[in-house]
Design goal:
By secondary structure, the protein is mainly beta. The chain is built from no helices and eleven strands.
Length: about 140
């Protein structure tokens, strides 16, 4: 298995092999106060090789701060893809899932969603949480 994509979005939903995304791919949010709660989703896509079908696989998503301290998680799940008729031996299949927020954001700064596949760190995506700018007269 290999990570195909991992991103944050205002809303994400994986249905029938398609990812429905609204406001995806951003890297910065603002919150009125810290600690706070941020209402967004995380979308994950994994390519499963032909030889890895018909087996159970684990995935873990963990939210970490810039000091690699765990803020949330792991959010865990399992996947198992079968071989549909006509799948060629070198052909991989994509598995997608969306994890719904809100998520806790303890302080302003840099955060990482980290994904592990079958116990191996596969990748991460980064975003920044900033305070809402002060209003000037």
């Amino acid at each position: 298995m290999e990570l195909d994509f991992l991103l944050v979005a205002d809303r994400a939903e994986a249905v029938n092999g398609k990812l429905y995304l609204l406001g995806g791919g951003w890297d910065r949010i603002t919150l009125p106060q810290f600690p706070g709660s941020a209402n967004f989703d995380v979308a994950l896509g994994v390519m499963v090789a032909y030889t890895e079908t018909n087996e159970r696989h684990d995935f873990h998503l963990t939210l970490e701060d810039d000091d690699n301290q765990v803020v949330l998680g792991p959010v865990t799940g399992q996947l198992e893809l079968g071989r549909p008729p006509g799948l060629k031996p070198a052909q991989a299949q994509r598995f997608m899932v969306a994890v719904r927020g809100p998520f806790p954001i303890p302080h302003a700064g840099c955060f990482h969603w980290v994904v592990s596949l079958d116990g191996h760190r596969a990748g991460h995506t980064t975003f920044w949480a900033d305070p809402v700018p002060a209003q000037t007269a």
